[in-house]
């Protein structure tokens, strides 16, 4: 299986959190086209068993393959943590890029003391993939792993700032960051890596608890740079601008899309096709906050996996 | 399709919230056996479109039919609100009991002023089923509908009491219940109906916001009484004790169960068989809070829908 460099890049997430990664990809790779698939009918993945996450991830990968993508970005930390090898096996030799390794890279670049806090869903944190990826780069790292499942619901509900978000951030981080005085002599992490693509919208609430000196990093920008490097290494970088290419219709889509039409107007948004498994209106409304630009419900196509 | 009165009662929910209904059923109908199916792989239903909820509900109903149940309790408000008629059509003539009508009945019995607040998921509240069921009984009722999606995540996370739960309760209820002074002369609901089976575990947080005089009701006990009446009307009430009957194994179950074994010891728990679509350990751990008694992970069988 080979694909032309003019083919789009497939981006997959359990829902809308991966739009924070797509945002970085659009900034890093303005000449590329994207197919973003959010499995909104079955989110959250973070509380499901690894076996179920792998099964769902393979279904999503195959749907994107059917759309002719030239590489796959697994923009979901949970799926990256437990499903990346299975996806690689299935779509070989197309490049598959997850968000765990880039996130670990960002954390290791940011930390000075080597004491890092990893925040993520139950499944991501309990699987230990972040911890291993950090220790591979920095064997002397000290890592505190913090499951923070409720952050997903807060982000989805649009309650990512304000008193409630801060009290939840304090619930997860208070003991570690506020419970230590200078007198205790105990070390506090100097870096937090946001190991879930939903979490970047909660940065200000986290900042309110941990103070101004702790570095808060996520995997979005590092992932975008890894994707650029992988495309170049595989001769897959697009040589034409995204605007010149019409976006193809999704076969079997349950809802008509205006993406192909919009693409002819040469708007930047024409570079992206949004696909979800449920709730186009909700995807557009909540997803706009994650992508940083408005998404119209009629830009979102629905498919069954 | 007919079933003997010795057959079990099927109870269906999107996840573990329906265990609050099962708890009431066990108290009301101690001689019956139950099959409880939680679609934990695909929860929450409350943010999904109606079409998807109906499709998932029919799959769950058919799985319970295959287990030989004599009637179905749809212990999920979202599924009751949008899927009840479709389920009735599919399993006719077996009785199907939802939780919306009993919840509305409980609210109308509790209110004096006729001013009622309905709390539920986005989907339940926007569908208007509760509002219609209340107005059918009490045409002069004044109803405030309050979507409270984040309550589901709080309950699932075990954060159903304390400062965070209260601040979320204030977010949803504060404007309505605390924003009115006696001087404003505006009416405040005298009754809140919890239109989601997850919400009863949040009663104390709700109480902290609305004060001691507002009545807080849910559909669990009323539903159990309706089930008793339906069984009697259809000649389906069990004439033998649950303890005397061994619980059958689930065909095709992915995990061995010890329910049949436990049933021979005549423990009350032998009357129930727990089935989930993902996460037996999580079902047992979080579900125990909803059922009000411990559930062991090996009591939970996993199936695919």
Structural summary, described in words:
- The structure is a homodimer of 305-residue chains.
- By secondary structure, the first copy, chain A, is an alpha/beta fold.
- Chain A has 2 domains: 9-98 and 221-302, Rossmann fold; 101-218, Rossmann fold.
- Chain A is 43% helix and 15% strand.
- Chain A contains 12 helices and 10 strands.
- Chain A has helices spanning 19-28, 50-66, 77-91, 100-110, 122-127, 129-137, 150-157, 163-177, 203-210, 220-233, 259-263, 280-291, and strands at residues 9-13, 34-38, 71-74, 96-98, 115-120, 142-147, 191-194, 215-218, 272-276, 300-302.
- A 6-stranded parallel beta sheet of chain A has the order 4-3-1-2-9-10, with helices on both faces. A 4-stranded parallel beta sheet of chain A has the order 6-5-7-8.
- In chain A, helix 2 packs across helix 3 and helix 4 (100-110) packs across helix 6 (129-137).
- The longest helix of chain A has 17 residues, at 50-66.
- The model of chain A is unreliable at 243-269 (pLDDT under 50).
- The interface between A and B is medium-sized, with 22 and 22 residues.
What attributes characterize this protein structure?
4-stranded parallel β-sheet, 2 domains, 6-stranded parallel β-sheet, globular, Rossmann fold, alpha/beta, homodimer
Q: How do the helices and strands line up, and which of them pair or pack?
A:
2 copies of one chain form a homodimer.
Chain A: E1 9-13, H1 19-28, E2 34-38, H2 50-66, E3 71-74, H3 77-91, E4 96-98, H4 100-110, E5 115-120, H5 122-127, H6 129-137, E6 142-147, H7 150-157, H8 163-177, E7 191-194, H9 203-210, E8 215-218, H10 220-233, H11 259-263, E9 272-276, H12 280-291, E10 300-302
Parallel strand pairs in A: 1-2, 1-3, 2-9, 3-4, 5-6, 5-7, 7-8, 9-10
Helix pairs in contact in A: 1-10, 2-3, 4-6, 4-10, 8-9
